[in-house]
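Fold this sequence, please.
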Amino acid sequence: MTEAVLWGGTGHSRVLRELLGHLGMTVAAVIDNRKIEPPFAGVETLRGIEGLKSWLHSRLNDSAAPSYALAIGGGYGRDRLAIAKDLDALGLEHASLVHPTAMVASDAALGKGSQVLIGSVVATCVRVGTCSIINSRASVDHDCVIGDGVHIGPGATLCGQIEVGDGVFVGAGATILPRIKIGPDATIGAGAVVTKDVPAGATVVGVPARPLQAQ
């Protein structure tokens, strides 16, 4: 079976391990910058980029280099992009992962390292950037353009012709109406209904969505 390493030992790593199994892949190691309890029995846990380098060096004569996937969910898209740059520099292949139950249109384009999780839909003419996550049962309708390092949360609905900038986080169950533009690094709260454009870096919540007021 093809091997992959996972960066991140949180709950998202368990989601990706299950998905990798469906794709005929196994987890060879888990890497995290923090000192963590091993998330999987029998799978080596490595500390940061230096731990990964040492592990790869120890395997030079044993097997081909594994691919990698980033088990970093939430609103940490910029972190995913930065870590991907480091791992690409080591010559590792960033795996794009699509769950067998997801529906991806034949003319949709998925960027390197994208993740399309269980039961989600990516419709015709959609473009998804690198290191972006379309989480469980999310729906991205026709002609949407999703930037790099984006996370579309579970059950979120993006209607047609929406533009989503880099680093955006869309919370669970949010709905974005057609032809809306979401600026880079914006956050859409869980359950929000977005009816107008959202500027870069803004956080919007509620129905209809409004800027979150500082406390």
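Residues 62 and 160 are 48 Å apart (CA to CA). The chain has two domains: 3-71, 96-203.
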